[in-house]
């Protein structure tokens, strides 16, 4: 749902100096309507605002302006912009509810309804269902989302391990045993005749060998039975029978037995034995012995069994009773021409003497067939050899060798000889030349020594004696006196012949930039951190001296215009900064609007012969007083920084302190009195008490709501600054985040929104950059938190040059000594023209005084001339004269002719008002 809310908050911003015949009333008569119940300070029926004043429109807490940065101005009686609509911020857009929680948007907040199993503000906490110890009997609880699982101790089961497992349920006791259940086990009582844990074992009653006199024992359940040997009886075969008769009567078992195949019978007591004829076996000699069973035939021979013997049929190449002999095929001397025979199974191999080949060495080898004679030599075949007749210029058995004409060492002075057919070539050592390298080369003839160096010729070289400031073998190198990095504190070293020059960054000076600088900062609502490192939080709503040179020369003054952050608020913010030097007053106002003497100027700007330089620098407008090495930067919103070199030690005064290294006397008033509170101290530095009588101190703010303070201190807000593993962790050990954290919590408490958060995060990032630490903005800037909106034809960059290329100085980035920081960078093909990025061919004009005009921009030069930039580098001017009913000066931000009160017109022509 979209809710339109208007809270016009009027911040009086003086844009002129002096008055003529009073100031006409020009109310913001087209102020938008607002919902019932909201203040309407800009209502034209209630208040009127003089021309040149501004009403500022600001959305209430929990709402954001639909288009733009949350503010709109009403200048000279008309609102600027037609998009003055506040939309309620949808805090649910960033999906803060985790783990499936449902988000309900509220004004300036939200509520999460968590899914089962989660709780917490953002449903970030998994409910621990194990906290109530649901698992019994020693079970272990494993927490799960919206539930838990019990892992039971041995012997228990059930969802909560409440049931003792009945181990007897499976009837583990066998063979009639009785089971008794125990915890995590059971006990079996076995029936007679069985044992074992489960009564699975039949007791072996035969184990004790109860059967005597050779009786055989057969085990039975809970008993045994003996089978007695002949002649015995009884349960255990303990009793003999027929003992006397067996002595008187013996039976001849051979009388009824026939041993086969010629076997002979031998009578035994109660039995017989057959002695078999050779080739037979068995109790009655009934079996023919298989003599082939032992595989007597070797080398693959086949065995045929016979009575009491066998016959082998041998494989080819073998003979003998058992095929044990390899037939010698070499016995017939098959190898010819002296070849050597090697016998093999069922064959032979001939090894021929050199010069012969073939299975039986019967062929004379043609050694010329391989063309062994090289380089055109002719081959003649012989037995076991050949003879080469070489072509002229070659020698060797194969004519492989070129006759070496280098053998006589013709090359002199270390030259290398390369043999060629019927000749040689000399490659000379460095420094020599000639067919035989007989001549020394004069290396100085080419004048190799540069930059005035003197050359001395040597064998195979030369030596250069260089003049001062040059080095190298040829004196070609200007000695880099910058190699030792003599320039300190980030100074840029420019090498010169036999010396160097240091170009120091703002705030440093000395031959080596060894002299330091001091920084005073103010940001937020506002928080002052003076040169000497103290802090105060003066909330005055007037214009004050921020920093001023109180030395004899009074080089410069920096003032700041503070205003309440909203009507009736207890806190203020810096809305304008003014730098006075060299007779100029440079003003930096909201939106980074720059004026000189109240007249708006387009950046970049150069004044006083280049001693006052004004330019965009990242998020800031930067004023550099180059001859003083003083730098003032302001972001056009809340943050201002003043940098002075050590030359101003003990010479400063104002809200930034006196820069003497002692924080105890920072609260010093203009008359030198040290006071004890920052309100008295702050009010003493009013620039014009008449415009702000008594200082108009703001009432002290009420105590911060506990819930708001807790939210401000949380890890997602101001707590980011102190998180060592967060986006600012790289800087914590270099720049103390505590002052920024304290200021951040203060601002969030009284702003009631994230503006204070962003202001303090930006201030800390800039402090880190000044200290040489780069904090990556993408790690803390998000679409929902502290976004940056860049103008057309540009894009956000984490490293935008602090000296961007501009139409007046397209090479500024290459010459920059300030490094880079976050900001908006022009797209390729575009360049800075004022605060816009334009195509390079649409750059404007720069006049003789160094003032830059955008194309189409018109400005008065005094009251006698008006100039317009009509195209790139083309300015057209015309002479003018003020009307008799007009006056010359600066009014409403314009320098030139202005009609007197009661007259209308452009100043050069004024008519009575109707």
Automatic annotation (TrEMBL):
Domain VWFD: 518-693
One of the record's GO cellular component terms: protein-containing complex
Signal peptide span: 1-22
Residues of the Sushi domain: 26-88
Pfam families with a match to the protein in the record: C8 (PF08742), EGF (PF00008), hEGF (PF12661), TIL (PF01826), VWD (PF00094)
Sequence ranges assigned to domain EGF-like in this UniProt record: 88-124, 126-162, 164-200, 202-238, 250-286, 288-324, 326-362, 364-400, 402-438, 440-476, 478-514
Keywords in alphabetical order: Disulfide bond, EGF-like domain, Glycoprotein, Repeat, Signal, Sushi
Protein name: Fibropellin-1-like
Lineage of the species this protein comes from: Eukaryota, Metazoa, Chordata, Cephalochordata, Leptocardii
Gene: LOC118432148
